[in-house]
C-alpha cells in the first residue's frame, strides 16, 4: 500500500475499517469502482464471493491442527479437524473442502492450502465452516462442480509418486462420489472391475467413466430389470471400453 498516494491510502484504510475486509479485498473493490468509496461499498456487498476473513484467526486455526515439528497438517490434525467440524472423515464434504483447498494429497494440508481454502469458502472459524457444510455438500449436485471435484479426486486420492490410482482406493472413491449421483449400476461396475480388471486405475479410465455413465444413463431406461441393465453394462465393458 506504500505505493499509493495519501488519498488512496486513506480510502483503503477507511474501507477496511468499515467493512472489516482485508487490504487485498479493499484494493480490489476500490479499483473496480475507480476509487469511489460509495461505489466500492456497493461492489463489495454485491459480490458474494468476496467474504471477510480474519487472517489472524486463520493462522490460529491452522496452528491448532498442524504438526508440532512440521509446518503441515497431517493425519492426526485432519482427524481433529473432522472432530471439531462434527463430520466423519469419510464424509464426502471433506472431499469438497479439500477441493476448495486445492489439496494435493488426501489427509494432508499445507499452510497455503488450508488458509487459502478457508478464504475461498469465506470462513475463518470452525463454527462458520460448520454452518457452511450444507451448502458445501450441495455443490456435488451441480454438474459442473461435480465434474471438477471428480477430476480433482483422482490425484488427491492417489499415492504419492504413483501415476495410477490403486483399485481399492478407486472403488471406494467411486462408491462415495456416485452415491451422491444415484447411479444405479455402481455396485455392478465395481464388481466388474474386481473380477475382470483387477489392477490400478489410470487417469484416462477415471476421466472417461463420467462420459460412459452419461451414455449408460441415456440407454438404461430402455432396459427393464436389474439383470438386463447389468448385462448392458457388462456387454459395453467387455467390448473393450477398458
UniProtKB/TrEMBL annotation:
GO terms for molecular function: cullin family protein binding; ubiquitin conjugating enzyme binding; ubiquitin-like protein binding. The keyword Isomerase does not apply. PROSITE patterns: DCUN1 (PS51229). Transmembrane segments: none annotated. The keyword Isomerase does not apply. One of its GO terms (biological process) is protein neddylation. It comes from the Eukaryota. Keywords: Ubl conjugation pathway. Residues 53-242 form the DCUN1 domain. SUPFAM superfamilies: UBA-like. One of its GO terms (cellular component) is ubiquitin ligase complex. PANTHER family: DEFECTIVE IN CULLIN NEDDYLATION PROTEIN, RP42 RELATED. Neddylation of cullins play an essential role in the regulation of SCF-type complexes activity. This is Defective in cullin neddylation protein. It comes from Oryza meyeriana var. granulata.
Amino acid at each position: 500500500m506504500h505505493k499509493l498516494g495519501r488519498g488512496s491510502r486513506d480510502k483503503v484504510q477507511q474501507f477496511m475499517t468499515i467493512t472489516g475486509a482485508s487490504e487485498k479485498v479493499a484494493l480490489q473493490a476500490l479499483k473496480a469502482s475507480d476509487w469511489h468509496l460509495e461505489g466500492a461499498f456497493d461492489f463489495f456487498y454485491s459480490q458474494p464471493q468476496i467474504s471477510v476473513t480474519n487472517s489472524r484467526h486463520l493462522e490460529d486455526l491452522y496452528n491448532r491442527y498442524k504438526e508440532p515439528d512440521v509446518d503441515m497438517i497431517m493425519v492426526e490434525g485432519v482427524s481433529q479437524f473432522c472432530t471439531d467440524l462434527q463430520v466423519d472423515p469419510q464424509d464426502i464434504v471433506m472431499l469438497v473442502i479439500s477441493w476448495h483447498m486445492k489439496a494435493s494429497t488426501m489427509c494432508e494440508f499445507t499452510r497455503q492450502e488450508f488458509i487459502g481454502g478457508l478464504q475461498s469458502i469465506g470462513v475463518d472459524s470452525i463454527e462458520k465452516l460448520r454452518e457452511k457444510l450444507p451448502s458445501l455438500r450441495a455443490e456435488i449436485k451441480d454438474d459442473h462442480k461435480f465434474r471438477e471435484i471428480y477430476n480433482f479426486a483422482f490425484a488427491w486420492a492417489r499415492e504419492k509418486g504413483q501415476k495410477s490410482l490403486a483399485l481399492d482406493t478407486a472403488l471406494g472413491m467411486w462408491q462415495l462420489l456416485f452415491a451422491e449421483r444415484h447411479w444405479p449400476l455402481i455396485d455392478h461396475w465395481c464388481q466388474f472391475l474386481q473380477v475382470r480388471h483387477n489392477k490400478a486405475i489410470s487417469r484416462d479410465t477415471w476421466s472417461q467413466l463420467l462420459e460412459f455413465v452419461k451414455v449408460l444413463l441415456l440407454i438404461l431406461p430402455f432396459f427393464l430389470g436389474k439383470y438386463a441393465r447389468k448385462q448392458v453394462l457388462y456387454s459395453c465393458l467387455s467390448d473393450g471400453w477398458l
